[in-house]
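Format notes (please read before filing issues)

Several people have asked whether sequences and structure tokens are stored in separate files. They are not. Every record keeps both together, in the order shown below: the sequence lines, then the token lines. Line labels are part of the format and must not be stripped during preprocessing.
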Amino acid sequence: EMDCVVGKKRTKEVLLVLSERKSRKEIIIKMKDKTADSVVRALDRLERRYGAMFSKVFRTITVDNGTEFSDVEGLERSCLRKGQSRTKVYYCHPYSSYERGTNENINGMIRRWFPKGTDFGKVTAKAIKAVEDWINTYPRGILGFFTADDIFLPWVASLA
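Then the structure lines:
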């Protein structure tokens, strides 16, 4: 699941939040603006970081109908393997945020650290990483009180 967390009005910087459904692993990426091009570039950086594992970890991505997710070809196209797909993108029904429930819940957790009105232009990469680490080391009932990292790391290792 993927969504954007918007900061202060009249500022451009936003957070792109990806939620891996199996382990509830969260990836938070700061983007310079809320455009389709920025989202594609952020996914390209993430694919480069994960390499060939990206298409195994993120086989599908569910997004809302925001304009930042309008470039479906760019979202699905691999930057590493020319002419191939990195993932399949699905869109939720309008006004149906419950179709991305994990992601919406995590956005609420992010708001504990960065309340509405936060200027993401002034938030450091270190602060964003601290929030990501906090979320991924938070024990969750749905995971048998394991953390997302406890589940994600061995699972990814088993895919290799």
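For reference, the curators noted about this record: The longest helix spans residues 36-50. The mean pLDDT is 94.
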